[in-house]
Amino acid sequence: MPQLELPFENAAACAAKDVPPPAGEALLLRLREAHPRHIDERRAAELFARAARARGAASVRRVRATFRPFRSTLYSFRIDPAGTALIRFHLAFRAASDEVFLQAAHLMLARTRRARVNVERGAYDAFVAQLPHAVFNLPGTRRYSPRARTGPGRFRSLEESFARVNARYFEGRLARPRLCWSPGRSRRVLGSYDPESDRLIVSRLFDSPRVPLFVLDYLMYHELLHKHLGIGRRPDGKRCMHGPEFRRLERRYEKFREAVAFIERRAN
Ligand SMILES: [Zn+2]
After folding, report:
1. For the whole model, what pTM was predicted?
2. C-alpha 8 – ligand 1 centre gap (Å)
3. What's the gap in Å between 105 CA and the centre of ligand 1?
4. Minimal CB count within 10 Å: which of 1, 47, 120, 200?
């Protein structure tokens, strides 16, 4: 069975943390020096439009691209009702090649996970993998989403989910992190755990009576595994969020397949 990739933490979380972090601005300067022909908003929009045409994405009529100093996101993307694709790339993408942009655009435009599996993404992945962690801490970056906050959900309780999962899978030994619902009903990032702030966020998508408890608990379990295991390292020292040990433990979740299948159906 092919390994299912769920949109938990985004790829930013997997960027190499080993590179000593230079000050953000110096770093960007370096990125630009290494790639003098860095990409501007217009070029980014052109490349996205090219990918949209190639995919027959008729809903895209215009493209507007901007670059932002995101803290944990590589890009965001939506198409407004008038057909304008509004794309925001992480500032580091100014140093990316055309090929990286085209692959990123295809990933954004692939509407289902099944379609994404077929997207050629080697250049994009290689670009993201070499990003130093410092690019996620640039001036102007907001430390946290100001609206993600602790507090009860409307239908579901993260505290209760944590208590269930902690008791069942961690012998009650895990200290409770700060538990937050995401401000929006994010489909792209379903959950995240930040060891620095010990904060675990679950997409508000799961604060719903239509989502079975075992699915919410699975997300909780997944994120708590990150807290439990810490940052994994591959033999070459690169960070690895979902290594073999993670995958093995993740499958201990009682309704692993059912939960993954539910999420897969929902996310598409
Ligand atoms: Zn994860």
Report:
1. 0.48
2. 5
3. 23
4. 1
